[in-house]
Amino acid sequence: MTEEKKTEEKTAQPGLSRRKFLAGTVAGLVVGAAATYGATTMMQQPAATPTATTPGVAAVGPVDGKQMTLTINGKSYPMWVNARWSLQDLLRNKIGLTGTMEGCNLGECGACTVIANGNAVNACEILAIETAGWQITTIEGLAAGGKLSSIQNNFIKQSAFQCGACTPGFIMAGKALLDKNSSPSEDDVREAISGNLCRCGTYDRVVLAILGR
Which of 30, 192, 195, 197 is deepest in the core (most CB within 10 A)? Predict the structure, then answer.
């Protein structure tokens, strides 16, 4: 058998051509994509929101939140609060008190420090829905009549800041200390601000500012 005849017979044999292979591959991809889209669409369908009544609280709708009144800087804020909102999120994004800074969001940097019932706390670690009846003070609540408080003026006097991202947290931690102890020692101050981080390294000036020197 000549080489030319062998080539003709090989060409005539049935098999999977390149065209059929590509057509089959494309068809498989389309079917797979359609199946995936269908499954994803089903997953994205919102489930019906259940409702329930929390003991001691009037029925207000979804179980993932409730109507409540927060007291912030001496002002009442009646509002619906989602059970997933942190106090930091509520202060910054729902009420607009952006002086409470957002840092690590893990309770490790102290940038979001506020005073709650007389204590310095990290707002990112507290669920807003838990704060009904609390007395909350933010950095915006320290100035009165357009005038800065003494601790705020002390921070300016000592230049106890550089970028300023951590400054509100330090001021609130210092204010909480001074409200309990008007004449703290340097060790008292350092202990009070031990949960606050300053990436610029202004700790010594922060201590002097809180001591009022």
Answer: 192
Please give the span between the terminal C-alpha atoms of the chain, in angstroms, as a whole number.
Answer: 108
- For 57, 85, 144, the CA distances from 173, given in Å and listed in that order, are 33, 23, 19
> Chain-wide mean pLDDT for the chain?
80
Both tokens of residue 194? Answer: 């031990």
In this predicted model, which residue has the larger pLDDT, 55 or 91? Answer: 91
164 Cβ neighbours under 8 A, 6+ residues apart: none
pLDDT (tens digit per residue) in 164-203:
999 999 999 999 999 999 999 999 999 999 999 999 999 9
Q: Which residues contact 52 (CB under 8 A, 6 or more apart)?
A: 59, 63
Contacts of 212 (CB under 8 A, 6+ apart): 150, 151, 154
Supply the pLDDT for residue 1.
52
Taking the C-alpha atoms of residue 206 and residue 113, their distance in angstroms, rounded to an integer, is 15
| Region for residue 212 given its phi and psi (left: phi exceeds 0; alpha: psi -120 to 50; beta: otherwise) | left
Answer yes or no: are the C-beta atoms of 114 and 87 closer than 8 Å: yes
Angle between helices 150-157 and 203-211 (to 10 degrees): 140
What percentage of the chain exceeds 70 in pLDDT?
70
**What's the rounded Cα separation, in Å, for the pair 177 and 154?**
15
**Can you list the domains of the chain with their CATH numbers?**
65-211 (3.10.20.30)
